[in-house]
Amino acid sequence: MEEVLKNLFDEVDNSHEEMMALWKKLVNRDCGSGNKAGVDSVGRDIQEILEGLGFKVRFHEYEKAGNMLVADYGDFSKPFIVLTGHMDTVFKDGQAAERPFTVKDGKAYGPGVLDMKGGVTILLTAMKLLTKIGYDRYGIRIILAGDEEVGHGSSHAGNDFLKEAKGAVMGFNMETGFMDNGIVIERKGCRRYRIDVDGVGAHAGNNPEDGRSAVEELCHKILDIQKLTDFEEGTTLNCGVIGGGTVANAIPEHAWCILDIRFRTQKGLDRVDKALKEIEKKVYVPDTKTTIKVILDVPAMEKRQESIDLCERANTIAIEAGLAPIHPIAVGGGSDSAFLVYAGVPTICALGVRGEFNHTVREYAVVDSLFEREKMLLALLMKL
Ligand SMILES: [Zn+2]
Asked: Which of 30, 259, 277, 365 has its CA 20 to 30 A from that of 5?
């Protein structure tokens, strides 16, 4: 291994305490997606760290969601890379005090320890070590979202992400790492719709002929909707929750359901969306009216050959540096890597600490993976 990288690895070995302290500091605070003040205060702490290293830091500010931090370093007349992640967690206020950062049997616990305070710790430590040696292989842009866990539902962070990532030559997402060293190159997208049907209520015994059953109408439509599933295309539809009517002796005036769609490509989603518009207009039971509304939208990280190639090159570099091999995987859960890929950036995701059970109180991260993944990121940034 070449001298510079070896020295960087030594620095990591000598920085365990400092890294653990930063990890702990990031975990021991409430910053669920709903707590804007909490997320923004994490952003200011990270701003201070990065400005101390010579980064130019700015924020995209949102009224109802945690702000997005963007930090630039180096010469942007050169090709630049994007390092990304998020600062929010899925946990409610009070969790940081209730179950603070703890280490037991080589595993770290605490809200967001895996998803993704570990990844943020790795990112910030890498920046500290690389700026110290005058890193200038690429311009570096860091993008840290403040509302990733809620899919940027009440901000325009998705669009801001696209704009900031555009033109980058590579993207690295420090998200939750997987136990088997799989590196994510594809994630399914998720879109959810609420479907409401209004009919005409009537007494089931006295004047049923005056009624127009919303439940009946919805049943027809659910059958049409379920037929849109295409396993080969990777687009699946599930009317997962349904409701309607009030009492058994009334023709139901109203019915509703929640439709969840998982998709691998925008093309697949567009096909379904178009068909849903037809289904919305179509009427089986006269005088009923249907409305279909999007209530959640998480784009897919589409599989691209450039991302697979990047993962293969990263694997070669990891092995040459004496680190564990990695391999490309596809997963169901979404991340902001979708935006990187839409911006045309070859991207590898889930480079953060390894662990299990994120989004639950059983969440843990393997402590040693903090240092392993630190070395991997440094090797990639020095060699790719
Ligand atoms: Zn995450």
From this structure: 365
For β-strands 254-263 and 189-198, DSSP reports them as: antiparallel
> How many angstroms separate the alpha carbon of residue 66 from the centre of ligand 1?
14
Q: How far is the CA of 286 from the centre of ligand 1 (A)?
A: 46
Whole-structure pTM value: 0.89
Number of compact structural domains in the chain: 2
**For residue 193, what are the domain limits?**
189-297
Q: How far is the CA of 235 from the centre of ligand 1 (A)?
A: 23
Q: How far is the CA of 116 from the centre of ligand 1 (A)?
A: 5
Q: Ligand 1 mean position to 240 CA, how many Å?
A: 24
Question: Tens of pLDDT along 17-53?
Answer: 999 999 999 999 999 999 999 999 999 999 999 999 9
Residues 263 and 346 in one domain: no
